[in-house]
């Protein structure tokens, strides 16, 4: 690609290192510059309009032009643009938001701790769990179990909990004390003739065996997303969460629900924990908390977690942890307005209804020769493409998914491929006509993919 000298694309290539990007390929391709947003759409610097089928990064619940969030940010900027929550200080938005989050929690919670991103929240949770174990005199009870394919962030501890190879390779991760058990990906991991409930039993048995092998007294917590996001939109099989929680209860192991993607309506309930009957000790939140209009995150903990931490801070004299921007007044004000809008407009119910339409529409493609699986819950779904005629040697994992994603982008729909699974996670404000537009683009793109991979069959079809 020849980039015009001094163009925005050329300047980006010259000066900007991007996350989740092949740095060398970026030098050749250059970026798509997203210029503005409107509803569920974004526009690039050339004026082309796209349906943002990923809500940015699973996160823009209210779309890209919600003036009430902008007004909330501006009003707070005028009143108090910054204050912190160290050393017995606080401010109104942090107080109000903590109270609000506790009030809507799917299970009884005691305290909220504010951070700046999902990664940072999960990293802090690890420190708090270690702190708690020391407070209880359980100095060996420090290991954290997560799942293969799970995603919990990219800081050192959070990336160690993440179960994806690209987050580990050449970073010297995971660090010691972080373990990964079976992914609940029934489509990929289920055995021949194994039912969903049998697979769920095997997942629970694998977890139990890992705990026994490591020593129950060394395992502090288990962390998992209600629905896996970056691992491929993996919806847990029937009875999975019931059986996993029984194992954790047996060994007195804390449960962390990473709701960074699922919380605030994504699964058709305010929290994914409600959707799947999860009763966590800790809940991580970010993304849709502010519709990503402001970097902000938090986690809630119950008394079982909080009380030993509080006692230890008293013994030491201080809880030696916190962030300058944690509980930022502007972010807290935006979060409060965001939650108010979600409730006023009944967007959780809209997510459930529009999600049913999206999933039903995607299910019509399951008979397509290049579609292997369709899955989802609420307003999060995936369509997994497969090699034609079983020719897996000709199409390494991820190649078809990348092709399909590129074709959909050309056709005006932003998706994201995780391997060969194409994710759909549009803003909660989406309407039925926009869902139909997504499905139309998916159908058109599948036809184009068919021509690209089997021109001998489909070129003149």
UniProtKB/TrEMBL annotation:
- Membership in a protein family: Belongs to the class-III pyridoxal-phosphate-dependent aminotransferase family.
Record-level GO BP terms: biotin biosynthetic process; gamma-aminobutyric acid metabolic process
What does the record give as cofactor?
pyridoxal 5'-phosphate
This one is known as: 4-aminobutyrate--pyruvate transaminase
Entry's PROSITE patterns? AA_TRANSFER_CLASS_3
Q: Which organism is it from?
A: Sulfitobacter noctilucicola
Highest taxon above the source species = Bacteria
Output the Gene Ontology terms for molecular function: 4-aminobutyrate:pyruvate transaminase activity; adenosylmethionine-8-amino-7-oxononanoate transaminase activity; pyridoxal phosphate binding
| Transmembrane regions | none
EC number annotated for this UniProt entry: 2.6.1.96
Alphabetized UniProt keyword annotations? Aminotransferase, Pyridoxal phosphate, Pyruvate, Transferase
